[in-house]
From TrEMBL:
Gene3D superfamilies registered for this protein in UniProt: 3.30.70.270
Protein name: Diguanylate cyclase (GGDEF)-like protein
Ranges for domain GGDEF: 66-202
Record lineage: Bacteria, Bacillati, Actinomycetota, Actinomycetes, Micromonosporales
NCBIfam families: GGDEF
PROSITE patterns: GGDEF
Organism: Micromonospora kangleipakensis
SMART domains: GGDEF
Amino acid sequence: MSTIAMAGLAAALGFLLGAATTRPALRRLRRELAAAVQQAHHDPLTGLPNRTGATRLFIRFAEAGRSLTVTLIDLNDFKAVNDTYGHDAGDALLVAAADRLSHTAAHHGGVAARLAGDEFLLLLPADDHDHLHPPAAALVALTPPITVTGADGTRATLTPHASAGVTYFNGLDGTLAGHLRQADIALYHAKQRRDHIANYHPGMHMPPPIQRRRRLRDHQAHRTVTRRQVQS
């Protein structure tokens, strides 16, 4: 739902609060407003916070002065799953991955979000001794096999694997967008490693052509989210 539509609902709620209105109508409008806010901040497929919701959560952590590990997770070979078994199978894999990442994040006192496609985000309280341990645990938690049904009705068992780029937020400086750029650079390096995880440091770089492709991907993902909210 668009920001304008949400503002309209909020205005209508305010009007009803000040007018003589039946309680059932007021309760219905409250439910509609709550549903609109939920839709604007959550991914409809997995139920996880989306990029907008993740940004709000990051701001809350920052306002509390909480240091975090910001981890970008990308499922390996996800396109091949869609191409081989169809989008329903791909969606089933995404839902399973979201559930596993959410449980792992909660276990470590953090949250998981889905940013776009097969890209997930973990915001986890920072471990002063080992920033990579919780993200590495999340990668392990993804690996139990999952059975999916292909477009032709055949069933297949898949073993999910992923890569993770990790960066550190000190609780004071920076935005989620800036830390996501760092985590994305680390993710690029993680995909070149056997253990599929990398911690960002200032000497890391990403080839310019890949940077351009990823900026285009992020721009398209933002437009898609905005279009869906407007259509809703």
